[in-house]
Write a structure and sequence with these properties.
heterodimer; B: 493 residues; 3-stranded antiparallel sheet; 20 helices
Chain lengths: 472, 493
């Protein structure tokens, strides 16, 4: 009964078909679309959770289901569910396009789920493209905006270029190892990792995933796409898409067997550049989504620190970090979506007086922002702590000190956001935000998870370690 | 899961009482300001009582770690929820309890955003308590950062005089300090190879090589030293103190700066004793610079709060000098000075806060003759000033005496310089007192009322603590001694 292994993906496909059916309805009905999406994705979370312990291979060994992939699938579906939760007022997208919006979110998630399980180069490529193309469509779907088209084209161009580079790298890998199976490559590649061709092939391949994660120098799309896309789409790109990129990056870096000094050096350099560039440019941002875009570039650098340790603790810490990042960013976007009710871009100054308009949202924002800055007792701190511990274990103390300096720099612009929410007074008194009970519950859950997982990371850390063991 | 508790968990109860206060306050509606204040008062009272219990019940004959609470927290990383009190932390817990309680009383007249103010305050204080009692490096760091970040909103929202600048500067400086501490902690964790963050396991002799100790100690000294106001990293401190609202200044100068010195002690000195001995010369040098510099800069200030801010830099230098002597007397004096300075500065800021609330100025030239208008309020300030100078019968006298005796033996030149600076600081304190409280009465303020009993209560508590420990220094020294003697005797020679 091997098809049981494929249930989460099949379920996702069914969801996509259901939305496809909805998109052919005669009259748009946003409320119905939202409720259907909410129901289907919540069932999806349950399905993904139920299949966490499955193990096996499918499709002539090209597709592996193990704890590593299943944990990430759960994170992806949970991310999708939480993003759908933000869609109560999907005012950034025209009503008749709502079913398509959900459809492409689902296909994108499907692509990413395939991606984290693929252990064959071509399967990886196809899964990656499935998720990318869905996003290429989602970005310009925004209502009545000029910038969305520009963002969409930029995203497509950079993405296509990254894909091409990646394919080129894949051809090298195939040329050296004469196989497209990851399991075979991992046997051959560490032996020849010191040859220039192997390093080049692996690095070029990684470029495709660097693009997804917005690592320097593939970060150019991030600020424009974050700003240009509808808020919910940005929330999705900033969370689920990043989680998938972390997963596949780990899988590919693990190919090297952890012995290549060149690869580590390149990753260290990219990590430092990403952190520094992201943090420095974020300081001058006025738009909340652009700020989060640059912060995501710097966070890509932090995640890389865990990945480049290339040990089990390193990978486990990166998995933990991915979860932390997902939760913190979703909390930020929750606030962005709720404050910018009309679906417009949110200036940081527009957060003024948030502490009176909605104390709960202000608190959630503060916790999430301090979490991104790596301040305890939040999950963001624990993530950084684990990542840094793994790196120090491998002797990268200098890198960790640089990363901590960077975290201090980032604190400046994060505090400016908190200042806007708690300190600045708006020119004219805006109305109190109407926060519905479901939103309150969602916020409370996110806040609780952020604090509890930050203080007591034991259980998820054990899961992450087991998942990392499956990877090696 | 291994759980180890010795009797009633006083230390957890202290933390719990702060966090419970925080939660209760979060669920009170904004408009019920009096209710928030009463809840804060009750919880801070309970906290103070618990601290007093710990202080009284600490067995002075037994010494060592008492009130041990140990629970395995994260197995794979070797993180323990491990609280304990020793001769160094017991006085600090008491100090925090006193400053919290008097701080809440001092802010009784607060009217803007009351709920948030007390919520942040309790979060901050929970962090402070956590650092003083944590014997696990992970928790120590977590609590340390928890105690720092609420400072930003506390200063930026309720502060005065360039508050946003002061708040930002303070937060960035202090968290830059923790950017050195975390790599230091991880470095020791990895180098020990014991897979534990337990301080008692890591402090065993022979766990770290001399080089590792020297390297790590430097990270800790600089990282925590920023918070302790070590010259030349002190510049955030006067600016931050001036900008902060009264209770926050009290907690900040009274307790938070001690956190830095305590961090150097608990993490730096406990884990890297050889590093401590190696860098002691440098510590003494920087401390002396701080003492002299603080005294002279204080001389030129015209803002009451700046005066106190710079005198804090000078007084914290005495703590640093005491630690740098590597002697029992020095350690005793340093910890006693932390306590004495904490209570004294709290009294300073508390009395300035009262004056500022009434006169809306803290510029010395604009005041003048205040003792004729509010004799009691002036009295509190003058007591604090006398304590700052180190007048006998007041707590800081003993502390400074011990430190100077010790430093005289070890560093004669620097010790002499520090004592000379003390004369300068006496000069500027007395000048401030003379200009602010004596001389021509300023008619502008003639209508103002003196401190009523209700508002005077916190200041009275602080004054009596200063006098009590000034008359019976052994009350404090007996406790500190239990930790200082074994520490010095255990040093590798």
């Amino acid at each position: 009964m091997t098809w049981v292994l494929f249930i989460p993906e099949l379920y996702c496909l069914l969801m996509a078909i259901a939305f496809f059916g909805l998109s052919m309805a005669a009259r748009p009905n946003p409320r119905r679309d939202y409720l259907v999406a909410l129901f289907l994705t919540s069932v999806g979370v349950v399905v993904a959770l139920a299949s966490v312990r499955l193990e096996g291979t499918l499709f002539f060994e090209a597709y592996r289901v193990d704890l590593f992939s299943q944990v990430f699938k759960f994170l992806l579906v949970a991310g999708l569910f939480l993003v759908v939760c933000l869609c109560t007022e999907l005012s950034g997208i025209e009503e008749r396009h709502h079913p398509e919006f959900y459809l492409f979110l689902t296909t994108c998630t499907l692509g990413m789920m395939l991606l984290v399980s693929s252990v064959e180069l071509l399967t990886i490529y196809i899964a990656l493209e499935l998720s990318s193309y869905s996003l290429y469509i989602l970005v310009p779907l925004r209502r009545g905006h000029g910038s969305d088209v520009e963002a969409g084209i930029k995203y497509l161009m950079v993405g296509a270029a990254a894909s091409a580079v990646m394919l080129f790298g894949l051809s090298y890998l195939f040329g050296i190892t004469h196989t497209t199976y990851v399991a075979e490559i991992i046997k051959v590649l560490p032996g020849v990792i010191h040859t220039p061709a192997a390093i080049l092939g692996l690095l070029l391949t990684l470029c495709g995933f660097f693009f997804k994660l917005a690592v320097f120098p593939f970060h150019f799309w991030a600020p424009d796409v974050y700003q240009g896309a509808a808020n919910q789409v940005t929330a999705y790109i900033a969370t689920a898409s990043k989680v998938a990129a972390v997963a596949i990056l780990m899988r590919m870096v693990a190919l090297s067997g952890g012995t290549s000094v060149y690869l580590v050096n390149v990753l260290v350099a990219l990590s430092i550049c990403s952190m520094t560039l992201g943090n420095l440019v974020a300081i001058v941002q006025k738009d909340m989504k652009r700020l989060l875009a640059y912060s995501s570039i710097s966070h890509a650098g932090y995640v890389l620190i865990g990945i480049l340790s290339m040990t089990q603790t390193g990978y486990a810490s990166a998995i933990f970090y991915a979860l932390a990042y997902l939760i913190m960013n979703l909390s930020c976007f929750l606030v962005v979506v709720k404050v910018a009710e009309d679906g417009s871009d949110l200036k940081i100054a527009q957060l003024a007086g948030l502490h009176r308009r909605s104390p709960l949202l202000a608190m959630a924002l503060m916790l999430a922002i301090f979490g991104l800055a790596g301040i305890p007792p939040t999950i963001g701190f624990t993530g950084k702590f684990l990542v840094f511990a793994a790196a120090v274990e491998r002797g990268y103390l200098g890198l960790v000190i640089l990363a901590m300096v960077n975290a201090t720099i980032s604190l400046y612009y994060y505090i400016l956001v908190v200042k806007a929410a708690y300190l600045l007074e708006p020119d004219e008194e805006p109305a109190r935000l109407v926060v519905t009970t479901p939103t309150k519950v969602l916020t409370a859950v996110l806040v609780t998870v952020m604090v509890v997982m930050g203080v007591y990371p034991h259980h998820f850390l054990e899961v992450a370690r087991a998942a990392a063991r499956a990877l090696m | 899961m291994s759980v180890e508790f010795a009797g009633f968990p006083f230390l957890t109860a202290i933390l719990f009482s702060c966090l419970a206060a925080l939660l209760v306050i979060l669920f009170i509606p904004d408009e019920r300001k009096m209710l928030v204040k009463w809840v804060s008062l009750v919880f801070s009272g309970i906290t103070l009582l618990l601290c007093l219990c710990v202080y009284v019940l600490y067995d002075r004959n037994l010494g060592g770690l008492q009130f041990v609470e140990k629970v395995l927290w994260v197995k794979s990383m070797g993180i323990y929820y491990f609280n304990a009190a020793d001769g160094f932390s017991v006085p600090m817990l008491l100090l925090t309890g006193i400053v919290l309680f008097t701080g809440v009383l001092t802010m009784w007249e607060l009217e803007t955003r009351v709920k948030e103010f007390f919520a942040f305050t309790f979060l901050l204080v929970a962090g402070v308590f956590g650092v003083f009692m944590a014997m696990d490096l992970f928790f120590l760091f977590v609590w340390y950062d928890v105690s720092l970040f609420p400072m930003y909103p506390l200063i930026a929202i309720w502060g005065s005089t360039r508050k946003e600048y002061g708040a930002m500067k303070l937060t960035l400086y202090l968290l830059a300090g923790s950017a050195l501490i975390l790599p230091g902690i991880l470095y020791l964790y990895v180098k020990a190879g014991l897979n534990t963050f337990d301080v008692t396991a890591l402090m065993r002799p022979g766990v770290f090589t001399p080089f590792q100790q020297k390297f790590a100690f430097l990270l800790f000294y600089l990282g925590f030293g920023i918070l302790a106001g070590v010259w030349p990293f002190h510049t955030w401190s006067p600016v931050g103190h001036v900008a902060a609202p009264t209770a926050v200044s009290m907690i900040h100068a009274g307790v938070l700066m001690k956190l830095g010195a305590f961090g150097v002690l608990r993490v730096g000195i406990f884990l890297c004793p050889e590093g401590w001995q190696y860098w002691a010369e440098l510590m003494a040098l920087l401390a002396t610079c701080g003492i002299v510099y603080g005294a002279f800069v204080g001389l030129a200030q015209t803002d009451l709060k700046y005066v106190i801010g710079y005198s804090s830099v000078s007084h914290m230098g005495i703590v640093g000098l005491g630690l740098a002597t590597v002697t029992v007397d020095g350690m005793n004096g340093a910890v006693f000075q932390m306590f004495a300075h904490g209570v004294m500065t709290a009294l300073f800021f508390s009395s300035v806060g009262y004056i500022y609330d009434r006169t809306h100025t803290k510029m010395i030239p604009e005041l003048g003759g205040l003792s004729k208008i509010m004799p009691v309020a002036s009295g509190y300030f003058i007591v604090a000033a006398l304590a700052g100078i180190g007048v006998p019968c007041l707590a800081s006298f003993w502390a400074e005496l011990l430190v100077f005796i010790a430093s005289f033996k070890v560093y004669p030149v620097r010790g002499t310089l520090a004592i000379c600076a003390l004369v300068v600081s006496a000069l500027f304190m007395l000048r401030v007192v003379q200009r602010t409280f004596y001389g021509e009465k300023n008619e502008r303020f003639a209508h103002l009322q003196d401190v009523p009993f209700r508002l005077g209560l916190p200041r009275m508590i602080l004054v009596s603590v200063i006098v009590l420990f000034g008359l019976y220094p052994s009350l404090m020294l007996d406790v500190v001694q239990t930790a200082a003697v074994p520490l010095i005797n255990g040093l590798p020679r």
